[in-house]
Design brief:
The protein contains eleven helices and no strands. The protein is mostly helical. Helix 8 crosses helix 9 and helix 8 crosses helix 10.
């Protein structure tokens, strides 16, 4: 197909409402049906009735598209939280956990993207991997009286709980939880996990805790989680 024919095809769909949001939403639908491995630019173009080249006006490539899908999923967390329940820190964490779990239930094939792809910075822990979500999480717990070390510990424990439980739940629902995909050199997409390029100007609480969030406490976290599990089992057995 010539460039003129591609532009003609693109213009014909623009009139029908083709834009980045439509493309991202359709990509999510494709992933829901076929998994992330089944999403290609050519296949998505066929889904939308346009040539794949037409999509590059709105997304730089498959990597950009996958990151946009993740962003759409994460943006849908806050509107589904229970404001009344979130008036206590316990209620806030319960509401947040259920809002994240809703993604794993409604989009099990897409949820592994949230949990296994590299976040924008190594200290952002999936599935709470957006600066906005982490900023709210940290600042909310501080407002409830958590001390600095307690805030960071809660973030680590909470994300570990969500990651382990919901990744398993999505797998039970048919998701493929393979390793992180290698970025494709497609359309000059920005590769994630570039800590030095993350703009923290709008997230002062994240900035404050950045050094603490970067510390590695994985051994301690594992042992603590294991002890908690053993304590719970012991309580069940002793009853």
């Amino acid at each position: 197909m010539t460039e003129r024919e591609v532009l003609t095809s693109e213009k014909s769909y623009v009139g029908k409402g083709l834009d980045r949001q439509v493309i991202v939403h359709t990509a999510l639908q494709v992933i829901d049906r076929r998994g992330s491995q089944g999403l290609t630019m050519r296949g998505l173009g066929q889904e939308l009735g346009v040539e794949a080249m037409s999509l590059y006006r709105y997304v730089s490539g498959r990597e950009d598209l996958l990151e946009a899908v993740i962003a759409e999923l994460l943006d849908d967390i806050r509107p589904h939280m229970d404001e009344l329940l979130a008036r206590t820190w316990q209620g806030y964490l319960q509401s947040l956990a259920h809002a994240v779990r809703r993604i794993a239930i409604e989009h099990p094939a897409a949820f592994p993207l949230v949990t296994t792809r590299h976040p924008a910075a190594p200290w952002l822990r999936p599935p709470l991997r957006s600066l906005e979500l982490v900023e709210e999480f940290l600042s909310t717990l501080r407002d409830f009286g958590f001390k600095d070390d307690q805030v960071v510990s809660a973030y680590r424990s909470f994300t570990s709980f969500l990651l382990g439980h919901l990744l398993l739940e999505s797998a039970v629902r048919g998701a493929k939880t393979s390793a992180v995909e290698e970025p494709l050199d497609e359309g000059g997409a920005t590769v994630s996990n570039q800590d030095g390029r993350v703009d923290l100007s709008g997230t002062p609480t994240v900035t404050k805790f950045r050094a603490r969030l970067s510390e590695d406490h994985s051994d301690e976290e594992f042992e603590t989680s294991l002890e908690t599990l053993l304590d719970r089992l012991e309580m069940d057995v002793s009853q």
